[in-house]
Amino acid sequence: MSELPLLIDRVEPKRLALTLGAVFLGGAMLMAGSTVAWSAPNWTPQSSERLVKLPPSYLQKSIDHDFANSELGTAIQKTEEDISLKGNTLGDLQKAIETSDGEVRGDLRHQFLAEKRAYLNMMSDRNELRRKHLMTKRRLFDDMLERLSREEGEMTPEKEELIELQKAAAERFESSVAKVDQRLFETPDLEESKYSQQYSKNRTAIEQLIARIDNHRMNQTPMSDNGVPLTRVEHVRRMVADVQTELAVLEQEETILGYMAKLVALDAMTLAEEGMDEEMIDSDVAQSSLTPADNVSFFLNN
Amino acid sequence: MKTQIFALGAATLIAMSGIAQAGTLENLERERAMTIKTFLDSSLTIDERQAKLDSQRRRLVDLERIVMRDKSLRGQNTKNVRIAFKNYDVTFLGHASAEKGHTMVDHWLTQFGVNTDSVMSSRVGRR
Q1: Which chain B residue has the Cα nearest residue A194?
Q2: Least CB–CB distance from B95: residue in A168, A176, A199
């Protein structure tokens, strides 16, 4: 006797039912999860404060890198590899059809048609994933624009006035610094303050660092095609326009796929018709093209 | 138990002292208040006042520079910051007086409409 019945005998029926129920539920959840993961690869970028503050030149790369590592990115890459392989298969079959004849040629044409259909399905799947990618990217840029405009929107007339006052104060202050220093040194007993000494020492270092930052490749202001510097908002808007362009191209590609699918259907009809014609030639069924007038001679002479 | 309560109280006090840390503008205002107190201190002789003001002017100038270079104040739309930048000559007394070639006390009084001419032309009388 196996050990399982013994185990069942030992365990209370209620407990056993609960355990089996849990195992079943766990299995069902696992299968459902895997089905969802397989059927809908995702990319969920977040428009964070950090992303908005990234240098413009680095922003696009950062988004692309995040996408490439996502489920959706991996799925698109895999589909593209499959499409490439399928393209090779189609090429091989096309060459084989050209050099074959008879029944083999017919079989190869059928296979070619089936492969073309599979190719179109793969292209269609890839386009769906690409559409998902582009729509997600557009949503991300929209969020970023909203965040950026919110930051700009915080500017009230009162705050604008304060910033103007601070700007004017800074200009007046900078223009009077030398004069103030001169007046301070007129007092012979007093030497330069600790803050002044430290500040002038640090200022040189700060200026060198600022110059290095200003010239840093990753800190370059993005430029338009005609060399006009773009603001952060303009740069993001430009990226939105690029996504929109890609979506429009995708629409066109889908139209092309639609025509390809129609051609595959027409080719299939042609093949089916050719098959039927061959069958009709071989069959013993009388041709329906015979009319009573063709056999009228049977009735004219006894 | 008492020791624990004391330790908790001390920790709270330390934490609160961190929160209550004054900003650069508040430090400047405090130093300026001390300077104005020196202007008005009748117990000092002229020399004593001058020596004290020389030393205070140095500190005031430093604090004014610290405020002016404080990036956290840019666009900080609070009442104190707004008033401070609306009245440059009063807030940045050390710089503004040196810029105009006045003593600090003269410059300060001028901001409130008191100058040598107005003092000289005034009469002592019963209100």
Answers
A1: B62
A2: A176
Instruction: Give me the amino acid identity at A270.
Output: T
Cross-chain residue pair B61–A176, CB shorter than 8 Å: no
The answer to whether residue B57 neighbours chain A at the CB level (below 8 Å) is: yes
Mutate to test the interface with B, among A180, A191, A192 (most CBs of B within 10 A): A180
Sign of CA dihedral B34, B40, B43, B48: positive
Nearest CB among B61, B68, B77 relative to A159 is that of: B77
Q: Are residues A58 and A87 in the same domain?
A: yes
Q: Cα angle at A246 between A261 and A90, to 5 degrees?
A: 35
User: A163 — contact with chain B (CB < 8 Å)?
Assistant: yes
Structure tokens given for B58: 């140095």
Residue A302 lies in a domain: no
Considering the domain architecture, whether residues A244 and A264 belong to the same structural domain is answered as yes
Token readout for B20 is: 């209550």
Number of domains in chain B: 1
Q: Per the domain annotation, does B12 fall within a domain?
A: no
Q: Say whether both A20 and A84 belong to one domain.
A: no
Given the cut 0.85, state whether the ipTM is greater than it. no
Residue A123 structural domain: 45-157+233-281
CA dihedral A235, A239, A244, A248 (to 10 degrees): 120
Return the half-sphere exposure (C-beta side, CA atoms, 13 A cut-off) of residue A161. Answer: 10
Would you say residue A13 lies in a domain?
A: yes
- Tell me the pLDDT of chain A (302 aa) as tens digits: 444 444 444 445 555 555 555 545 544 444 444 444 456 888 988 878 788 778 877 888 889 999 999 999 999 999 999 999 999 999 999 999 999 988 898 899 999 999 999 999 999 999 999 999 999 999 999 998 888 877 766 678 888 889 999 999 999 998 888 888 887 777 666 677 788 888 888 888 888 888 888 888 777 777 777 777 778 888 888 888 889 999 999 999 999 999 999 999 999 999 888 888 777 776 665 555 567 777 677 777 66
